[in-house]
């Protein structure tokens, strides 16, 4: 027979997981790591996470959708967001669904980010144009989007 504290372990894991999920959405992998760090046994964590997933309390798709929305509002592009979600163990199919469903105009997101940082300062020269393009690339915008925001480099004269 299981001792009293052992029988209570799944309830403790479930309680902790739900408290974390109340604060914000988590990916399954992220939640697994947080529960592991708290010293809960891996087998119990797996059982509880599958149960929460089946009940709909835990959803990698919902997590990905929340992340896409949050990051886009902060001025990050799809390349950056994809990478971040992959690092958090989210399936690439779910990542693509979340990005498509987000229906963001990435050019609008990029322009907002760009204007926030570069105001209306004119582009001085090619080095300046390249620096700005590189800035948008680091924030996860694709080349086509960057060209929509900056325009092609045309040397003056």
Task: Draw up the topology in text.
Blueprint: H1 4-7, H2 9-23, H3 28-37, H4 42-55, H5 60-73, H6 78-87, H7 92-102, H8 106-118, H9 126-138, H10 143-150
Question: How would you explain this protein's 3D organization?
Answer:
With 157 residues, the protein is mainly alpha-helical. The protein has ten helices and no strands. It has helices at residues 4-7, 9-23, 28-37, 42-55, 60-73, 78-87, 92-102, 106-118, 126-138, 143-150. The longest helix is centred in the first third of the chain and has 15 residues, at 9-23. The radius of gyration is 21 Å and the shape is elongated. The mean pLDDT is 93.
Report the biggest beta sheet as strand number plus sense, adding barrel if it closes.
none
N- to C-terminal distance: 86 Å
Using only CA atoms, what is the Rg?
Answer: 21 Å
Low-confidence stretches: none
The SSE order reads HHHHHHHHHH
Average residue pLDDT: 93
Please state roughly what percent of the residues sit in beta strands, choosing from under 5%, 5-15%, 15-25%, 25-35%, 35-45% or over 45%.
under 5%
Approximate helicity band: over 70%
Number of helices: 10
The shape is: elongated
Number of strands: 0
Q: Which structural category fits the helices and strands?
A: mainly alpha
